Amino acid sequence: MSSELDRLRESIDAIDDRILAALNERAKLARTIGTLKVGHAYRPEREAKVLTRIKGANAGPLADETVAYLFREIMSACLALERPISVAYLGPKGTFSEAAAKKHFGLAADAVAAPSIDEVFREVEARAADFGIVPVENSTEGAVGRSLDLMPNTPMKVCGEVVLRIHHHLMSKSAKDFASVRRVFSHSQSLAQCHEWLNTNIPDAERIAVSSNAEAARRAADEVNAAAVAGDMAAEHYGHTILASNIEDEPNNTTRFLILGDYEPTPCGRDKTSLVLSARNRAGAVYEMLTPFATRGVSMTKFESRPSRVALWDYLFFVDIEGHRTDANVAAALEEVQRIAGYMKVLGSYPAAVL
């Protein structure tokens, strides 16, 4: 048994040596490619193609998602040889926005915390960060209004998306059990997403909404018998003990984030296009405005209305469609919509989330 174990371990060591050599060979090629590029080294459409190809080629026993995560980190490390990509996110450290940034750009990226969604936009627009990541919708609570409100006026493009499964945990530094929790801090959306669990398990605890889940973890760490509803990263960063895991009321609670930057991805074969529209003030205007998508065979995956903030009862419509703006059917539909709509702005075409 001992000799067989030694033999297997030697085989693993030999494979590890080959993996290490292959990784460094890949890194050298990536660095050479970086010297030939003009502008961004980061190409979301190229990375989406790589991850899709790797998942398709995977024969197991590792799961497709596991393999994709490994290659995401390899690409992140190779990009950082040139210069780490800087990514602004809604801070402080430990938020789901930071987790989304790490998921999309990898651990080698330079994640920069911003105090508000407005500041994330400003960091990218001022070129203080290469990219920004903002939440736009949650499967339970719907649209993130502030992100949508800022989209029409930014000169930046939407160049990617991240879909993050959200797990909320009840955590505390001082409370040892549910009975001793007197106050619960969290973001208002997270409190809403865990409403029934909190009602059932700690109905008498005061609930206090703060700017982010990470801020909730920070506040709870400084107060006796206080707890926070937040994610794994916040618990680790602020030294909390998790009292209860996965307390979200909906088992498939997911948040979608968009990547902002001064870059327009080319088609990758599985793309989305986001745009904002306003309808003319006449009967049937919204139906007329959306009809070209149906007649051109373009699938609409999102339709969200927001007050325009320009005139009373005037609305903007945020629309996601499948396909790239340069695809023939999408381009034809957009051209027709442009003529019909009172206002249209294409926010960007980008690869659909792979991970």
TrEMBL record:
Catalytic activity line of the entry: chorismate = prephenate; prephenate + H(+) = 3-phenylpyruvate + CO2 + H2O
Gene3D superfamilies: 3.30.70.260, Chorismate mutase, Periplasmic binding protein-like II
Domain Chorismate mutase: 1-86
Keywords for the protein's UniProt record, in alphabetical order: Amino-acid biosynthesis, Aromatic amino acid biosynthesis, Cytoplasm, Isomerase, Lyase, Multifunctional enzyme, Phenylalanine biosynthesis
Residues of the ACT domain: 274-351
InterPro entries to which the protein is assigned, alphabetical: ACT-like_dom_sf (IPR045865), ACT_dom (IPR002912), Chor_mutase/pphenate_deHydtase (IPR008242), Chorismate_II_sf (IPR036263), CM_dom_sf (IPR036979), CM_II_prokaryot (IPR002701), G/b/e-P-prot_chorismate_mutase (IPR010957), Preph_deHydtase (IPR001086)
Gene Ontology CC terms: cytoplasm
Cell location: Cytoplasm
EC numbers, comma separated: 4.2.1.51, 5.4.99.5
Keyword flag Isomerase: yes
The protein's annotated pathway: Amino-acid biosynthesis; L-phenylalanine biosynthesis; phenylpyruvate from prephenate: step 1/1; Metabolic intermediate biosynthesis; prephenate biosynthesis; prephenate from chorismate: step 1/1
Residue(s) at site: Essential for prephenate dehydratase activity: 255
Keyword Lyase: yes
PROSITE patterns noted in UniProt: ACT, CHORISMATE_MUT_2, PREPHENATE_DEHYDR_2, PREPHENATE_DEHYDR_3
Molecular function in Gene Ontology: chorismate mutase activity; prephenate dehydratase activity
Residues of the Prephenate dehydratase domain: 86-262
Domain of life: Bacteria
GO biological process, one term: chorismate metabolic process
NCBIfam families: CM_P2, PRK11898.1
PANTHER family xrefs: PREPHENATE DEHYDRATASE P PROTEIN, PREPHENATE DEHYDRATASE-RELATED
Function description: Catalyzes the Claisen rearrangement of chorismate to prephenate and the decarboxylation/dehydration of prephenate to phenylpyruvate.
The name this protein goes by in its record: Bifunctional chorismate mutase/prephenate dehydratase
